[in-house]
Amino acid sequence: MTLLLVACQSPTFHVAEGTASTTGEQTSGIAGEGGGSGTQTTTGGGGTGVVANHCSNDVKDDDETDIDCGGGTCVDCVDGLACDSDDDCWNRGCVDGRCVTPSCVDGRMNWEESDVDCGGSCERCGTDEHCNENAQCASNVCTARTCDEPSCSDGKKNGSEADVDCGEACGTPCPLQAACASDADCESEVCLNDVCSTEACDNGNTDAGEADSDCGGSDCPACDDGSDCQMDTDCASGVCSQGTCQAASCSDGTRNQNESDVDCGGPCGPCPDLSACTQASDCASRACADFICQRPTCSDPVRNGSETGINCGGPGCPQCGVGSACNVDGDCLTNACSEGTCTEQSGG
Ligand SMILES: [Ca+2]
Ligand SMILES: [Ca+2]
Ligand SMILES: [Ca+2]
Ligand SMILES: [Ca+2]
Fold first, then answer.
1. Higher-pLDDT residue of 313, 16
2. Which of 35, 173, 239, 273 could be bridged to 246 by S-S, CB 3.0 to 4.6 A?
3. Measured in angstroms, how far is the CA atom of residue 250 from the centroid of ligand 3?
4. Does pTM surpass 0.85?
């Protein structure tokens, strides 16, 4: 519910200052399925807007850079079509004369990136690169739209800290149950299974406070599946049922086994829109940005929603160029879909 509220309050796309005038056009465009109708009248999808005659005659003429798109008067060209400048392209990227799909390696700031090829669904940004939120920074700290250097007092686990602002690297040992890499990271000077523990967690006995032998409770690492337990937090899986730690599953209502959100992503099936994600494959939309599964749009780097090609076709996006996949004639700029591919129109 929280995620839904957040989504309602803010647009799907975050546009950095200074580029809003160009990038904003595409991002406020047509959302994938069930999306808004922002700029529908100016897209190639047969909208109701006033469009110059030469923009709908299935011929590349006037100032168009490809058939009925690009130039100053027609709709922007979708990915793969010919262009002269970035402004000819729906996704504002013209490389070697073709409109390109945004990516994390194209040397330009596009899609959800907060700086060139970082942030959003790309690698986190380094120190001094631009950001809109903490999650876009390697340091996990974004101040005044710039990623900070990691520090031992920023309240985040970053740099070479064992856990938040502690460990050998900070000169401040970590408390019990914090993450650790070596004994030196821990106040207790005992690091067991990468968790700061006590000697009692390593003696083969079920000491006071432990849920089972050397595990659970407030001091020791969590217990393996099948161990005795009193509460969910005693178990590595996070699931204690009838006194026994249960194996993690994709249907246990608990985020475990590297799931990106509860029972989805990671080893489970893809997550619905607005779930947490760490990579594109976690999402049904195959679009993960700022660690949230994005709704399909016509300006993300993937074919999703009802698109037949990347960011084209279907009821919500611009029509596709020749060679793109299609389902019906209307998916194609040429209005000719033959055997699943947009073709040059045969008749006049
Ligand atoms: Ca990029
Ligand atoms: Ca820190
Ligand atoms: Ca689960
Ligand atoms: Ca898309």
1. 313
2. 239
3. 4
4. no
